[in-house]
Write a structure and sequence with these properties.
The protein contains seven helices and 13 strands. The protein is an alpha/beta fold and 290 residues long. It has one domain: UDP-N-acetylmuramoyl-L-alanine:D-glutamate ligase.
Length: 290
């Protein structure tokens, strides 16, 4: 039976360009390639979870702007349910513009994220509460872009023994209010809570919230995680020719959420690493699935 996952957070439209280099001031560039896809950490994670064999529900703000239709047309290629926290809004969903440097695969991103699309807990549809209570979902992922909604639903998941994963890409004010609800904190190399200067500081900070499982991804460098003895261990990254790093962390989190349901923490990290590495070898966030 396919596992069900609930993915809470950001839904965007990503305009992705492959170029020789990012533009300088007043420079016009001709891209070598381009693609358009739905994006956002929770969205890309939900798409990955679905591709691997799960069933995903993405919970975020979308609305009825024309751009929302483009997002839906991409997501509907997969067995995914999009549950809208603001179905009547006519505001545009966030649009991200991304330039990927061809020689390195590094990306530069500009986006509003969820700054202007914050939802309240009153906007959570009643069926989401019912499905959590009925254990429809086997796992819940939050990306930090809808903190009040995430906190509300993570509290329910906690009472139902449904594991909660946080995609900790960067520190966002308010995250401290829900960290005690997290079972798996998988952080990027850019995640620095207040007062943290090193990865050791980050591990120590997250341990104060009694998070059972903590890991930090570091790009092409080995993943660091805490074992049962609270010792830092590493998982190597497979060598690849990097084409595009866009969405690699999101894809990693989606794969991790899928594999952690059947594997140990280090095993799930290792399997997710293989998926993210494959994604980095292709341009865009979807071509790796071909």
């Amino acid at each position: 039976m396919s596992p069900n996952g609930l993915f809470i957070g950001l839904i965007t439209l990503d305009l992705i360009y492959l170029a020789d280099n990012p533009p300088q001031a007043n420079q016009k560039l001709v891209a070598r390639d381009s693609t358009i896809a739905a994006g956002g950490p929770a969205t890309n994670a939900g798409v990955t979870f679905s591709y691997l064999g799960g069933q995903s529900t993405i919970l975020g703000v979308l609305g009825k702007h024309a751009i929302a239709q483009l997002i839906k047309s991409d997501i509907c290629q997969f067995p995914i349910t999009v549950t809208d926290l603001a179905p009547d809004t006519t505001n545009s969903p966030p649009v991200s513009s991304i330039i990927v440097t061809q020689s390195t695969g590094e990306r530069a991103v500009i986006s509003l994220n969820a700054v202007k699309t914050q939802a309240t807990i009153e906007s959570i549809p009643s069926h989401i509460y019912t499905q959590l209570a009925n254990h429809t979902y086997q796992i819940l992922l939050i990306d930090g872009h809808q903190i009040p909604v995430s906190r509300e639903l993570a509290q329910i998941a906690k009472t139902q023994n449904i594991p909660v994963v946080i995609d900790a890409g960067s520190w966002k004010p308010g995250l401290e209010s829900l960290l005690h609800l997290v079972d798996y904190a998988v952080c990027s190399n850019n995640f620095y809570p207040p007062g943290c200067q090193s990865r050791e500081d980050i591990f120590t900070y997250l341990q104060t919230y009694h998070i059972p499982h903590i890991a930090i991804t570091r790009g092409e460098k080995p993943i660091q995680y805490l074992d049962h003895q609270q010792e830092i261990r590493t998982i190597p990254i497979p060598p690849i020719r990097t084409v595009d790093t866009l969405g690699a962390g999101d894809i990693f989190h989606g794969a991790f959420s899928y594999y952690i349901l059947n594997y140990s923490f280090p095993q799930a990290l290792g399997k997710a690493t293989q998926i993210a590495a494959k994604a980095c070898s292709c341009f865009g966030t979807r071509k790796w699935m071909d």
